[in-house]
Structure formats: C-alpha cells, structure tokens
Structures
1.
Amino acid sequence: MKGGTLYNRYSKVMEDLLKRLSDSQIDAIKEIGNIGAGNAATALSEILNTKVNMTVPSVKIIPIERVPSVVGGLEVIIGGVYMRMSGDAPSNLLFVVPVESALSLMERVLGYRPMDYTNLKEIEISALIEIGNIMCGSYINTLVKFTHLNLHPNVPYGTIDMAGAVLSEIIANLGEVADYALLIETVMTVVGESPISAYFFLMPDPDALTVILRSIGMM
Amino acid sequence: MQSRVIIGIAELAVDIAPTIIVTLGLGSCVGVTMYDPKNKLGGMIHIMLANSHGDTRGKPAKFADTGIPLLLSKMLERGADKNNLIVKIAGGARMFGNHVPALNVGGKNVKAVKEALSALGLKIRAEDTGGNRGRTIELFLETGDLAVKVIGEDVKII
C-alpha cells in the first residue's frame, strides 16, 4: 500500500533521527529556540510595553499523543494560536497561554477584559490571534536570519478551549507522518500586576528537522 | 463506590458498572463508546486519526480502522453481547473553524469511525460530532448514559 509506505518511512526517519541526536545537536536546537523565542518575547514586550522574561528553551521528544498534556493537562482551558511555517523546513508554531493570561493579553490590546471566554466576539479572539501572529512572525524572521533558509509565515488561527481539544488537532496532522514529536518549548513570563505565563512551541516536521540542522552545519 | 477511569489520547478501557469511563478534551479526536445494557458492561476509545495505513508498531487505539475492532474484541472478551451493543460517538470538531483548509482531521475521523463501525455491523445509537468546540465525555456504566460537556454549555446526555 502506497500510503503505508509513506507513513512508515516518515515515522522511521523521525524516530531514527530523534534517537541519534547528539548532545551538541540538541544544544544547537535549543539555541535556535532561544534566539527565535528571544525575539518573539521582545515583540511581546513591545506590544504590552512591559518586561517579558523567558526561560532557556527545553527540547522534548515525546510520543505525539502526549503533546497536549505538556501544558498542564487535557482539560486545562487555554488560548492557543497556531501558525504553519512553510518553505524549506515546514513546521508548526504554537503560542499557548492559560485562559486567564489569554484574557489579560486580550485586555491589553482591546482596552477591556472580555467577560465570557466561552462566547468571544470575533474581534476579541482576533486580538489574541494578532499577538500570536506577531510572535510567530518574529520567531520565523529570526530563524531565517540564523539559518538562511527560505521560511514563510502563514495565516494564524486561534481559539480558547480545553488544551487537549486545541492541541490535538494540530498534532494530529503531524501524527499522520510521525509517532514522536520534537517540541522546542520556551516559557515566557510577563512582569506586571497580573503576571502572564505563555508557552511557545516549535514543532518541526520530520524532514524539516534535518534541514534545520544541516543549515547550521550540525548535520 | 463509583470509580472513574480516565483514558488519554490513543487509549481505551472496558469496565463494568458502576464505573464511569471518562476522556478529557476531545477536539478533532473522536470518542467511541460501546455499552451492553444487560451486563452493564461498557468501553470507550479515544481515537486520534482515521487510518493506520497498515502501521502496526504504533498504538492501535490511535486509529479508527484498528482501534474500533480492538475495542469490540475487548468488549466481547469481557462477555458483551454484540447484538445488544449500544454505540455512541462524540468529538470530531474543527477547533479553528471551517476556514483552515489544512486542518480537517475531525471530519475525516468521524467518517472513518462510521466506516469502521459499519464494517463490523455496528449501528450508531447517538452522536454529538462536528462544531468547533472541545468536548469531555463520560460514560456511566450503570445506565449507559453518555454525558457530553462543552465549556460554557449545559451538560448534554446522549
């Protein structure tokens, strides 16, 4: 079966590659996450006009089905913005914030706090998506400068709902071709009256990881 | 004592009354439940993708085409009567709305689940699928009720 061959091939490529990653390759991946997220954090800091701290990225290699639980559980309510990065190294970018933080972010853009997150107006969810858009855009710009690869942003999408529901749809696409996901995770904290914590994830497609590593001479 | 058995993505469980089987935060994934009212025996599976494409290394419960026959065989092993099985399904949402061309996992999952059930000669008694909201579902093995919870909405029993 043709589909089966494709599935097994990608799955195996990803699994083999992930198993063989050396410490220095993992460090290089972290450094990419660090620079990308650093600029995204600066962009966020400019939008909010406050200081944004970020952690050193962690690199996680986990079974696809466990990805949605990394932000604290499947039923935790989150705001999620998703963007597909296309070009030489197709990947998924994800900006995830706990619901209270999502509302605080929206408040700073809109000038008021949406009352009911289960019934958001188009303009309210757009505010969250726009923040995610700016962050994903700045992350991608940095990756382009660092890797000299041809990478472009796409239309961002976003929603507020249970983490399992929001994240599983994104990873399901990756699940078509891989059993494991490589997750570059950065946690950002917005300093202020109501502290905001946010996660930023880069999930390269199986082949994209090889392309990225090669572009920086790590493969 | 009622105990709650919570299954994760790409997992399944079969149990008897008065247990409640739960799965949290179904988005594009589909929860499928089977219930034998005579034996008060039921099962649930949390399916993530439509087709295994013949892949046998991963978790069979991840895919509709391999997971549903597996759930049925686990039910039969526990003594369920296939002719009395009440099947319900929930999930298969498009979390980011209909305007995302690349993301149509939910619709494909629902279709594949229906095909897999029909191939086994199983009819769907009730379903709550589609839309753009996440769902948590609970199967009460005392009654066979399936509670569907969506944030900000009343619990629906199907």
2.
Amino acid sequence: MRSSFTHRHAPWLFPAPAVALVAVIIVYPIAYTGWMSLHEWFASSLARPRFIGLGNYARILLGDPRFREAVVRTIYFTVLAVAAETVLGVAMALLFNREFWGRGLLRTLAILPMVATPTAIALVFVMMYHPTLGVANYLLTVVGLSGFRWTYSSQTALYAIAVVDVWQWTPLIMLIALAGLASLPREPYEAAHLDGASTWQAFWHITLPLLRPTIVVAILFRAIDALKTFDVIFVMTQGGPANATETINLLLFNQAFSYFNMGYASSMAVALFALVMGASLILIKARRTAAW
Amino acid sequence: MTARPLTRRRFLQAMTAGAAAGPFVFTPARAQGFNWKRFQGKELFLLLTKHPFIDVLEKNIPEFESLSGMKVKWETLPEIQARQKLTVEMTANSGGIDAFFTSLHVEKKRFWKAGWYHPLNKFLDDKTLTSPDFDWNDFTPGARAGVTQPDGSISALAAFVDANVVFYRKDLFAAKSASPPKTLADLEPLVQKLHAPPATYGIVLRGLKNANATQYPSILFPMGGTYLKDGKAALDSKEQVAALELYTKLLRQYAPPGVVNFNWYECSASFMQSQVAIYMDGVNFASQFEDAAKSKVVGKVGYAVLPSGPGGHFSPIYITGMAVSTQSRSKEAAYLFAQWATNKANMVRELMAGVGVGRTSTWDSADVKAKPKMPADWYQAYQASLKIGRQGLPEIVGVTEYRDIIGVAIQKGIEGAPAAQVLAQAQKEFQDLLNRTES
C-alpha cells in the first residue's frame, strides 16, 4: 500500500527536499528582507523594530539624493563596463576563432584575469593607480603623456574602476562568444562566399545575427554581475572620492553595517533586487524577439 | 566634561599623606579586602580588536591568568568585524562576551544608549573589587572624560589614548631655518616655504572621506569651531567655514597629487618616502617613522604639539577602553580583567612599546626613561597634547554617519567646491541625522 502512496505522490515527494532547501536559503531571506524594509530598525538600539509601512521606500524615492545618485551611477557604470566588455569580448572571440600558431596558449592567458580573486586584483590596481608611486602614471610619462589621477579624483574614479572591471570580465564574454561561434553552421558562409560577399559583409549579415542570442546571454550574465559590483569598488575607493563611486551596493552596505540602519538598508536591497530583475527581464525579452 | 570627584580619590590622597589620616578612611588593613584570586576558577571570554595596544596586552594575558586563577579565552578581530560581531551578539542577547575592547570615539554613545556598557562606578568605589594601587585619578582628565557618559556613568577604563600631533622634517626645516608652527596663522606661510614639488610637498593630511574626519578637528578646534551648538548641528558656522577652507586649501595646493583619497596609510607612506615636509596625524604612527626597514626618514623627524588658533589650543584625542558587558554573567570577574589590563604596570609596558596611554604616572616611569623607544620630543609632544586633549569627534549615536557627511564635504572642498556651499549641505544632512538618532 505504501508503494502506491509513493507512486501517487512521487511528483511532490521527490522534489520536496530541494524545494524545502530553496525555501530556507533563498526564499526566506528575500521575504525577510522585504519584511524588514517596512520597518525602522537601528541594530544597536534597545527599541524594537517599528513598522512604518512604505516609509523607507518613500524616503529612498523622494527624500534621499544620495540614493538617487547611486542608482544613476550604478546604471551608468554597468552600461559603460558591459558595452566595452561586449565589443572587446566579441572581437577577441573572432580573433581566437581563427587558426594560428600559439592560439591555445594565448587563449589561456587571455582568460587568466577572470580566474583571479577580485579583492587581490583591486589591491594590485590600487598600487598601480597611485598618482606618484604607481606604475600606471610611470608608463604614461614614458610615452610622453601626463599622468592621470585615476581613482584619486572624483572625475575619473568611476572610469578607473570600470577599466578594472573590463580587464577582468572581457574574457567571460569572449568565452561565451567563442562557444557560440563554434556552433555556427558553415552553409550560410559558403553560400555568401559563392555570391561574392566580402568578409565584413559576412560578419555583419551572417555572424552577428546568428551570434545574437549568445551575445545577449553573455550581456545578461555580465549586466547582472556589474549591477551588483561590490568588492572591487569597496577595496579600491570605498565609494569615494566624495561618493563618486558609491553604487547602490556600497550605499546599502554603509547603511546596514556602518550606520546600522537595518530597515532602511533592506529597502535599498529590495530596490537593487528590482533593478537587477528588471534589467534581466528586458534582456531576456530582447533575446526572444527577432530583431534588435 | 570633568570627572566627578570620587570618594576613593580622597582615600588615595590620604594614603599617600600617611596613616595619620586613618580614622576616616580605611587603614592599609583594608588592602586585604582586595584579592586578585577572588574569582579563581571562573572562565572569561573577551572580544578584542586588532590594535597595537592589544598586541602588547595579549602577550601578558597568561600572567593575568596565574595572578587571578581564572581562565581567559579571547578572540581578536579587525575593528570593523569586531564591531559587527559585538552588535550581533549583543542584539541576540547571547551573554557570551564578558569584556570587550571598545573604540569610544565611535561607539561611546551608541553602545551606552543600547545599554551594552556595564557602568563601572560602583566597582571603582568598591574597595574589595578595586586594587588600592589602581588609582583612577592617575588617568588624565581627557581620558577620564572620554570614558564618562553625560549621566556620569563610567563605561570603560581608558586604554590607548591617541592624540593628534605635528610630524615634521627637521632637516628640511633647518635648511629653510624654519620652526614648527606655533599658530594656525603660521601654518600656510610655513607650508608654502617648504613646498618644492615634485621632490617635496609642503604638507599631507588625510583626504579620504570618513578617515579625514579625525584630522579635521586639528584645524577646526583651534579655529574655534564645534560640532554642536545647544544640541543642534553647527557645521555652517563661520569658524567651520574658515577651518574647512584652510584644511582643503592646504591639501589642494601643497599636498601630493591624489591626496583626496589618502587614508593614514598613503599619508604616512608619502611621509616615510621623504616626499612631504609636514604631516599631522595620530601620535602612534610615529613608531614606523623610526623603523629603518620601512622609513627613509629615520632620525630626521621632529615631533611637536599642534598649533593654537583664535579659538584656543587643543589636541583632538581618541580613546579606546576596556569595557564590561551588561550581558556578562561574571561582571565582577570581567572588571578584574579590565582593571588589570589598564593598571600602571601594563600601561608602562604599552608606553615602552611606543603605544600612547593616558596615565600620568607612566610619564615619569624609570623604565620608560631608561629605554625610550621614541625620541625625547615624541614623549614631550604627546604629554603636552594630552594636557590640551579634547574628544576629537562629536559624542553622538551616529558617529560613522557624521564622519561620512563631513568627509564628503572635505573631499568636495579639496576638489575645489566653495567651503560655505559644501558645509551648508553637510549641515542639512547632519541635522537630519541628529533628528533621526538623538531624540
């Protein structure tokens, strides 16, 4: 009899442990963050968390210029970094898709940045960017350029960090694009060749459209990650100078663990979650539609 | 804020005067009332912070164990992580921490309001709990004020007392026949005179937001500025504007490029690389200047007290202390540890290792004089600074948030924004912070 029970309920029973695990480690924290975001709560206060409804959201949307600036900055940083990574990554993929001597070695070297620890990379770049003692400005002076301030000026800091992100994550786009290139059919190229198409025409009219779904997936991965960037910025500038590199993640970390405003920080976490989710949905939709 | 006179003070004075004062105070027989072994067999757990003071202290903890017969376990974490751990443990009311090392300049008001500091007044007055040679009044007035709350309760025993001083290059000063700045008015002309980039920059001070907030009062206090006036934010006063103008002008015109993101690490690196003539920061950074493995300026550094100004003569001080947790199940035993950690003998050891402490008796210690780790003018500058010590940061709940607010204003100032404008914005944010957290 027991076996018939198991048989009847198998579709529920087998996934049950996995569902329970997901509920505990993913759904519960997200739901709890959502619940906390409706409260005013100072973590070191004797007072219990106080329910204030949507008060925190009203404050981040209307009353907190620092948050608004962080949102704009986060999106700007993401677009900038991911656009550069996509162009460079696809170009590198096209290069490595050709046969040439030493390809395997160079390809391995090219993906090394991706394997390194972000914190370690950030520390190395901090030293390289030092305006008077760093190697970056030294190299610039060697070729006759004047030095930059890199992360040591609010005008250039965000770009300097984007450079680190591009350096580290271009290889990811390259790898995904390479996989896409490997699976492309040969026939369209042969037909185009017979019709007298140039290499550029073949790339623009055949490779790129066929590769589009792959590129969108790569952008999706990178955009989600770039929106959430934390470690590199935290190590390199802690959001400075003068908040010039303070993204949503940096700001909410400060609110939660420096100022101990847990409720307010939770509402920012929810806002960031919505932003990442929204960006992902747009990209997924872009992948499904036929034209760009 | 001055410390309240304690009855013990009278007792100690009487003791030194001689046993003649006997009838009204305890005679030496009462010393038997105090016993280090009173809590023999108990176990204590301490939460400590990575800090030069703790580095010295940790080595001697076994000595406390044999003195008291207690077993001590402890964990040492970097400051930020220690604060997070403490917040979690205390919020959860775990009772697992008996005593902790506390950065009073950041945590004083917040932890007091949260009720995490066990008030030590009764323990200090209790002759059976406080060793007769502990001597509360041996701590400098600034150190005592730093551990005392507005309601008079004593939250910790002062351990490391940091004071801001002037570090300067004696060789460069001699070449220009200059002397350390006596007043704020001397400062800019002096810096200008020494400024010869790229070989030598005139001055370096912290530019990085938050970190800069502990150095800014070196200019602000002598200028006459304060953080609060009648409980309200006072960041837009004319003294504040003058102070921020001077601080940011010095850095904009006479500091190494990129100073806007310099923390103490970059500042002291450029000073030790012989790039800078004057550097003002916490007195404890000096020990590395005299370390030939790290520094190119060994023996060339002079130490002086900060310049005075129209508002008076001050040195911003920052105090850490050993506190007893209200949630501890053995508060009295934990107090014995805190007392031992800050007693005269241990403080002498700290000073000998180059860690500044706020106990006057250590200054005349024969041990320190016999084997000075630092040059004589270091000790002089440090002692003179403690005498004019004033708590360097506002004593409010949201210290970290305040430091970010003023920190960003300073960074914007360094990059050229007008002082009055950035301070008007900071004033608004600071008052908003006070409204949210101080009510």
